[in-house]
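Internal QA ticket QA-208
Title: Verify multi-chain structure generation after dependency bump
Assignee: T.L.

Test input:
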Amino acid sequence: MRDALVCSVLRMPDRITGTLVWYAMICEREVWLMAHELEPDRDDARLEWGRFLGQMSYPRSRKREINLPGMKLDIVERHGARIVVGEIKSSSRFVEATRMQMLFYLWRLRESGVEAEGELRFPQERRRMRIVLDASAEADLLRVIERVRAIMQQPFPPPAKRITYCRSCAYREFCWSDDPEE
Amino acid sequence: MRKRLYVVSSGRLRRRQNTLVLVGEQGNRYFPIEQIEEIHVFGEVDLNKRLLEFLTRQHILLHFYNYRGYYVGTYYPREHYNSGYMILRQAEHYMDEAKRLDLARRFVKGALFNLYKVVRYYRNRGKPLEDIELSLVQHRSRLDDIRDIAALMQAEGQARNAYYAAFDKILEKPDFAFEQRSRRPPRNRINALISFGNSLLYTAVLSEIYRTHLDPRIGFLHATNFRRFTLNLDVAEVFKPALVDRVIFTLVSKDQIKASDFNEELNGLYLNDRGRRVFLEAWEKRLKSTFYHRGLKRNITYRRAIRLELYKLEKHFMDEKAYIPFRLRW
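Actual output:
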């Protein structure tokens, strides 16, 4: 029995974040879990490493870590009239996902009247990648946002599927805790 | 891997800059805070609010035991994994009688299965335990007909009594005769060991619950009054045979714990300092020992198995996958 009251409280607010956009490109189950405030294991070694890397890299970038609703900008720099926001990642392995996350930030900034460009930064690879929100990128982004919204509204999480990302995912113990022989 | 800190000696536990220090008679001992998962306090320890604030920020639980080794309580810092969705789901499974009974029965079934496995293990090593094994099987087969939680707890108690009869046959040590279960106070050595081990398990499970989105106050088999932690008691039932009882069998049969490791007082028997240290060491070793997990496809510690058990419960509450308790595989 699922009462109507419980049901209405359980309905998720329509809050899309940069992280959800990132996950949508990798694992839909992760989007659902994250959207239901079921964050992964915070003591996961890779998460800790990512936090450490974000804190220790680019010590000379002055304005760092800006929190806005639904986004956490690792780096915000002003070069004359240009505003550059940067996202730090430990590797370029999921570059398409990271690009989408960045496009989301640029899109949200544009909505609030700030025209910025993006830069993906991979400090361990000594690499940077410029991201611009043009018309075709915007169309891609809107499709992803629609997908995130659809996943969030499902009553159950999409079933666990083994993909290569599972190996490094902080949800792996949550998803694979069951004994497969049961 | 973070460690658990057991404070057996007395002194003052303080925050000094960003680290933890125990100021005792033998001088200061420093413990890097990043390496600590939780703290168990057995000794007479003074502390202040500054320390509690520090531990809150570091998300470290502080478990207290009195000088007899009884669990006193836990400093449980404000929740840091919060999901309104999960709390409502957990509560829903408590309030719906059928769902609550179903989950309570799963805990008991899991517990009985593991009791059976322990008995079977020693039977395979030549101990005369056929009758007890049979009786556990019968107890387990009756669980499906039980319609309320009180009867379920009763059935669990009966099965456990049958199981306790195995202790004397497994150990064959007159100093450690079981006789019958006695709690407050434990009237003999083996009861003292069981009580002490169970307290350690309850706090270990509680510490893991803190690192999930579950609410420790909503238990299913053990009654909830929303003031005490009860979910940890439920989950502990499943692990007692695998963790507590096995530690006891090892310590006693290898004579690592001796009759002289106990003090007698007020009609009861309690582990003394030395006995407690030996037990804690063996306990810690047991939690850190590993086995192969078929879902994760790698070795995990028993400590981790407790966390995985909680994840399985979360999935049960989400109606994603019905909870199947941890099973000993020997």
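Spot checks passed. The longest strand of chain A covers residues 71-79.
Status: verified.
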